[in-house]
Specification:
The chain is globular and about 40 Å long. Strands 1-2 form a two-stranded antiparallel ribbon. It is mainly alpha-helical. The longest helix is centred in the last third of the chain and has 32 residues, at about 95-125. The protein is built from 4 helices and 2 strands. About 85% of the residues lie in helices and about 5% in strands. It has one domain (about 1-120).
Length: about 130
């Protein structure tokens, strides 16, 4: 249970970081504090539901989809987050593409490296 909670916190942190980085470096992206909070929650719920749905597919289909799924889930989550809240706006196709890639990169890097760092730190401290 502790690992699930820790993984959830890490994923939320990586999604939040990805959204902040995208708002900081991508022109045409604006984000307010309430919009940020709602967007992270919507993004997390959307990613969880859609990821779970894909993982329920037979293994040979799921493995084919997992390569492009991250980008597709990121686009869907961003669309839903921008619809649900007025605090996240992305103007222009270039901004949408750049925001999707930035979010996907940051969350992927965070999802891979953060658990490894925590496991390594936890193993070294015992």
């Amino acid at each position: 249970m502790r690992q699930i909670l820790l993984r959830t916190v890490l994923l939320l942190a990586s999604w939040a970081t990805g959204l902040l980085v995208a708002a900081w470096i991508v022109p045409g992206v604006s984000l307010s504090v309430p919009g940020f909070i709602v967007a992270v929650v919507v993004f997390a719920v959307t990613q969880a539901i859609l990821s779970f749905s894909i993982l329920k597919l037979p293994h040979h289909y799921a493995s084919l989809l997992l390569g492009g799924t991250g980008l597709a889930l990121t686009v869907i989550a961003l669309i839903l987050a921008s619809i649900v809240t007025r605090g996240l706006t992305i103007d222009g196709m270039e901004s949408w593409l750049a925001t999707t890639v930035v979010m996907w990169l940051v969350t992927t890097i965070g999802a891979i490296t953060l658990p490894e760092l925590l496991i390594r730190d936890g193993a070294g401290s015992t």
